[in-house]
């Protein structure tokens, strides 16, 4: 039985931290996109999101495409997407795909929040 995607969001400083756990693939991408689109729809100002991928066990090309599309959507609205991804399989996929060079990737949530605070 395949693990599903689990999303949980909370505010931390001026950022929305979204935990992304489970498997991000063609079956779960719509759930991620819908969640981010609903967050964007609720906000009148630029949205700054940290996607915590620490507990993401798998990400395929559809998941990578979704992350890139979310980055573009947020950026076009004046916002930003940062990723938390420790060493492991998902980080290797981000590096191989080049997405790790297009998005700020941090090893821990604390590092992403500290970095985000400096950019703000």
UniProtKB/TrEMBL annotation:
Q: Which GO terms describe its molecular function?
A: anti-sigma factor antagonist activity
User: Which residue range or ranges hold the STAS domain?
Assistant: 5-116
- Family matches, as CDD domains: STAS_anti-anti-sigma_factors
Give the originating organism. Answer: Streptomyces scabichelini
The protein here is known as Anti-sigma factor antagonist
Q: Which protein family is named in the record?
A: Belongs to the anti-sigma-factor antagonist family.
- Which PROSITE patterns is this protein grouped with? STAS
């Amino acid at each position: 039985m395949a693990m599903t995607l689990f999303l949980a969001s909370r505010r931390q400083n001026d950022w929305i931290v979204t935990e992304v756990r489970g498997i991000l693939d063609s079956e779960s991408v719509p759930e991620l996109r819908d969640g981010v689109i609903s967050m964007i729809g609720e906000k009148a100002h630029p949205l700054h999101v940290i996607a915590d991928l620490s507990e993401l066990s798998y990400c395929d090309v559809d998941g990578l495409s979704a992350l890139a599309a979310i980055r573009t959507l947020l950026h076009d609205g004046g916002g930003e997407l940062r990723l938390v991804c420790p060493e492991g399989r998902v980080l290797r996929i981000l590096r191989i795909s080049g997405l790790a060079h297009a998005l700020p990737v941090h090893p821990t949530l604390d590092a992403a929040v500290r970095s985000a605070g400096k950019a703000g």
